[in-house]
Write a structure and sequence with these properties.
Number of strands: 28
Number of helices: 13
CATH architecture of one domain: Sandwich
Shape: elongated
Low-confidence stretches: 1-8
Strand order of the largest sheet: 9-10-13-14-17-18-19-20
Length: 603
C-alpha cells in the first residue's frame, strides 16, 4: 500500500519548475504540452502510478503539491500520451542517481556558504586555468575512478602558488557514464554524480573563493546529449525522427554532435536555458559562464539562426542585469567582433571570446620545424589583434582542451613528437606560454601545461603530478611569468594595460619586440623581446621609450628554468639616446635560443 500523502489544492499553487521545496513538502511542475495526463511517482508514494496526478495549467505545464515529500526522495514523472506511457526524469532535476536513473529531490538552499563574499577580479587581471575535474587530480593514484571536486580541492594550493586567480571548469552537468569531456549533457541542471554532485561543486567553489580564485562554468547550449537523453521526445511528441518539444524538428536540429540542437524559437526552451544559466551563478555562486561553441547556437546548416542570436542576447542581458560582476565568455572561433559588442549595438553581449586569431599563429610559430618558415609578422598580428578596440574582449592561449586533442597534441609533443621533454620542446613551449602571458588579452592555461604535460588530452588519463619534480624549471617559469603578468612585485604594471606597440619585427632573424603600458613611465612601461630562433643573439639592439637603466625581470633562458638553459645570462641594460626602431632611445639586449626577455625600470 502506498504511503498516504496529501495533495494540495490548486488554490495554493507555488511558482517554479521541477521540484519546488517548501516547509510542508514539495510541489512539482513540468512542461508537457502533448501529454494526456501526468503524475509524479517516487519514494514518497512507493512509486505508485496515479497516486499523485498532476493538474494541467496554462501554458501546458502540469502541477501537483505533495505534502510530506522531502529532500533525498527519489522521483520521476509518468506521462501518458495516447497509447504511450513514458517515465521521465525531471528536466530541472538538480541531482540524479545517474544519467539513466531517478531524480533526487535536492534542497538548493541548505548549503552553508559561510562568509563567502568573493568578487571577480577585473578582467585585465585575470589568469584563467582550464580544468577537467575528472582528470585534474587522481587522489587514489590508480586511475580507478574519475577525479572529484574534493580531489581537485586538494590541489588548489598548487594553483594559488602558481598565481592562477580564475578556474574554468569543463562542463560538469550530468553526462552519460562516469568518463567524459562533459560536452554531452544528459541532464543540464544536475551536477555530475561521479564528480561529487551539487554539494561537491559548492564545496569546490567555496574552497576556490577562499584561495582567491574565481570559478567559471562551461555550459553547453548548442546541443544536448545525444545519449541518455530523457529530454528526447519528452512528452511523446516529435515530427519524423526528430526530438520533440525541446528540439528543432526539422533540419535545424542538425549539429556536429547529433540532431539535438535546442529549439531556440520556443519560449519554454529559451526559459529553460535562461533558468540553467542563472542557476550556475545563483545557486553555485560561479563567477561566470563560458558558452561552448556559440557558432552552432547562432547558425545551422541552413544559415543564420536569428533566434539563436537572440537567445545569447537574452542570456547575457539577464546576467549583466542580475549579476553585473560576473563574466560571460564565448567559444566561437570565427573572430566575429559582434559576439563581444554590446546588446544595445546589436551584439551578443559577451564580455570576451576565445581568440582563434591568436592561438593558431602562436602555435604555428613554435611548432613549425624550421626557423626559416616562422613568420614574425604572423606573431605580430596575433599580439595586436583585438575585438572592438578592446584587447580584454579576447581570451588568449596556446593550449586548450580543443588544441590538445582531436588529432592535435600538447605543444611539447607537437615540437618534438619522439621526445617532448627535449631541450627544444621545453624552450619553444615556454616561449609560447610567455607570449600568452605578455600579450594584451585574458590569458588562459590548460591543466598540466605548467607541468610540461605531453601527449594529448584524454578523459581517462589523469595528470601526472610527479612531473612537477621532473620539470621544476618549467613550473617555476610559469609561476614567474604569471606573477609578472599580475604585477605582483609592482614593477610590471604595463602587462595589465590595454596598450601594445610591436615596434620591432625582424623576420630574417626571427626576433620581435613590443612595449606594454597603462600610462607609461618607470614601473609601468614593460619591454618584451622574443627570439623565435635557435641562434643566440648578443648585443641585439631594440628601441626604448625612455633612456636610463632597464632591469631584466625575466629571462626565460635562465638556468633556473631548465636543464641545458643558461646560454645567455644578464641582468640589466642601459638605454642611450641613439634612435632606433622609430624611438628616440635604444638599448642592447641578449637573447638565448627560443627565449623571451621582459624588462622594466624601477619606479
Amino acid at each position: 500500500m502506498p504511503v498516504p500523502v496529501e495533495t494540495v489544492p490548486p488554490s495554493d499553487i507555488r511558482p517554479g519548475m521541477g521540484a519546488i521545496l517548501h516547509a510542508e513538502g514539495v510541489a512539482f511542475r513540468v512542461w508537457a504540452p502533448h501529454a494526456n495526463s501526468v503524475c509524479v511517482v517516487g519514494t514518497f508514494n512507493d512509486w505508485t502510478a496515479d497516486a499523485h496526478p498532476m493538474i494541467r495549467e496554462e501554458h501546458d505545464t502540469w502541477y501537483v503539491d505533495v505534502l510530506g515529500a522531502r529532500p533525498g526522495d527519489e522521483y520521476r514523472f509518468l506521462i501518458r500520451n495516447g497509447d504511450q506511457e513514458l517515465s521521465r526524469i525531471d528536466p530541472y532535476a538538480r541531482l540524479v542517481t545517474n544519467s539513466i536513473g531517478n531524480g533526487i529531490i535536492y534542497d538548493s538552499s541548505a548549503f552553508d556558504w559561510e562568509e563567502d563574499g568573493f568578487t571577480l577580479f577585473p578582467h585585465n587581471e585575470l589568469i584563467i586555468y582550464e580544468m577537467h575535474v575528472g582528470t585534474f587530480h587522481d587522489a587514489d593514484g590508480n586511475g580507478g575512478r574519475p577525479g572529484t571536486f574534493h580531489d581537485a580541492i586538494e590541489k588548489l594550493g598548487h594553483l594559488k602558488k602558481l598565481g592562477v586567480n580564475c578556474i574554468e571548469l569543463m562542463p560538469s552537468a550530468e553526462f552519460a557514464g562516469d568518463y567524459s569531456w562533459g560536452y554531452n549533457p544528459a541532464h543540464p541542471f544536475a551536477v555530475e554524480q561521479a564528480y561529487g554532485g551539487p554539494d561537491g561543486l559548492k564545496d569546490f567553489v567555496k574552497a576556490a573563493h577562499r584561495a582567491g580564485m574565481a570559478v567559471v562554468m562551461d555550459v553547453v547550449y548548442n546541443h544536448f546529449g545525444p545519449s541518455d537523453l530523457d529530454l528526447w521526445r519528452f512528452d511523446g511528441w516529435g515530427e519524423g525522427d526528430k526530438g520533440g518539444i525541446y528540439f528543432y524538428n526539422d533540419d535545424r536540429s542538425q549539429t556536429p554532435w547529433g540532431d539535438t540542437r535546442p529549439d531556440y524559437g520556443r519560449e519554454e526552451v529559451r526559459r529553460y536555458l535562461l533558468d540553467n544559466a542563472l542557476m550556475w551563478l545563483k545557486e553555485y555562486r560561479c563567477d561566470g559562464l563560458r558558452y561552448d561553441m556559440t557558432l552552432y547556437i547562432r547558425t545551422s546548416n541552413k544559415g543564420n539562426l536569428p533566434e539563436g542570436w537572440a537567445l545569447t542576447q537574452r542570456l547575457n542581458g539577464a546576467i549583466r542585469e542580475r549579476f553585473p560582476d560576473k563574466i560571460t565568455i564565448a567559444e566561437d572561433l570565427q573572430n566575429n567582433e559582434w559576439l563581444t559588442k554590446s546588446i544595445g549595438e546589436g551584439g551578443a553581449g559577451f564580455h570576451a571570446q576565445w581568440c582563434a586569431a591568436f592561438v593558431h599563429p602562436i602555435r604555428g610559430a613554435v611548432t613549425t620545424p624550421s626557423d626559416d618558415n616562422r613568420s614574425m609578422n604572423d606573431v605580430r598580428n596575433a599580439i595586436v589583434h583585438n575585438y572592438n578596440g578592446q584587447p580584454f574582449q579576447r581570451v588568449i592561449y596556446s593550449e586548450s582542451h580543443d588544441e590538445v586533442a582531436n588529432g592535435k597534441a600538447r605543444v611539447p609533443q607537437e615540437v618534438m613528437p619522439d621526445d617532448p621533454g627535449h631541450y627544444f620542446a621545453r624552450k619553444r613551449a615556454g616561449l609560447a606560454a610567455a607570449i600568452v602571458l605578455t600579450t594584451p588579452g585574458i590569458p588562459m592555461l590548460f591543466q598540466g601545461q605548467e607541468l610540461l604535460t605531453d601527449g594529448w588530452f584524454q578523459d581517462t588519463v589523469p595528470l601526472d603530478w610527479d612531473r612537477a619534480e621532473e620539470f621544476p624549471g618549467t613550473l617555476r617559469l610559469y609561476r614567474d611569468l604569471i606573477h609578472l603578468r599580475r604585477n605582483v612585485g609592482g614593477r610590471t604594471k604595463g602587462l595589465t594595460g590595454s596598450h601594445v606597440d610591436v615596434f620591432h619585427v625582424n623576420d630574417n632573424d626571427n626576433v620581435l619586440a613590443f612595449r606594454r603600458w597603462v600610462e607609461g613611465g618607470p614601473g609601468d612601461d614593460v619591454l618584451v623581446v622574443a627570439n623565435f630562433s635557435h641562434f643566440e643573439r648578443r648585443d641585439y639592439r631594440i628601441g626604448a621609450p625612455t633612456r636610463g637603466r632597464w632591469l631584466v625581470r625575466l629571462n626565460s633562458d635562465a638556468k633556473c628554468y631548465g636543464k641545458g638553459f643558461g646560454a645567455v645570462e644578464w641582468t640589466e641594460a642601459t638605454a642611450n639616446d641613439e634612435p632606433y626602431d622609430g624611438k628616440a632611445h635604444s638599448l642592447p639586449v641578449a637573447l638565448g635560443p627560443y627565449s623571451i626577455v621582459i624588462l622594466s625600470q624601477d619606479g
